[in-house]
Amino acid sequence: MSDSLSGTVVLVTGGAGGLGKVIAKAYLDAGASVAICDINAERLSQTESELSATGRFFAQATDITDEAAVGQLADAVVQRFGRLDVLVNNAGMADSFDPVGSLSKERWDRVLGLNLTGSFLTTRAAVNAMEKQERPGGLVLQIGSIASSHGMAAGLAYTVSKHGVAALVKNTAGFYGPKGIYAIGLMVGAMMGTNIADSFATLGGTNGEAFQQTISAAFKPECAIPLEDVAKYCVFLTDRGIAASANGSCIPFSKNSPLA
Q: Between helices 118-132 and 67-81, what is the axis angle to 10°?
């Protein structure tokens, strides 16, 4: 195990499964102290039992669309580890591939609420904690998507939410970069082993089935991005010099995606 990030405190949202869990493990392997949150209690308990033996791990059930709960989470992380250095905004959901004409307001609200408003709430809580700690500074890593810059990689709700988080990164970087608090977006392409199936189960059927099938038919498994590679890049970007140099960047990480 490397101790390159010893003394660094990281919070990963949606960290009990899929990409979030892989990112959390990568930070633990690099010597960081890691907190995760998730809304899936069973998965959270399982991950806690796997990782708590490190003595550098903390888990809390949190709905990141709940403003009060997010504030309590940030306070709990600082109380447990003494500070917060890195936030990885990983929690999110897919949409139902609906275009504007068939998208219900309920689905719009749900996807935007988690992907965009949730990222706003966690970023705000993290930045406020980073500003007032004894050694100010920190990093917000936003997991974005190729849909952050393309219009036909998903349905309307997801596309708008991911365009929105790119703006969240850029504005946060501009305002807080001079204070040593950096923001970087990682715009990932298709991955395997994520919790995307949870999103479809939550949303139910889709009116965008034809569009979804078109996207799926174009997908080549060999072009899928390994979750471990995304996690390695998160750890790489956590270096203070790299983070400062990349502040405000929305970095494509999409292998050979035709939309890249």
A: 40
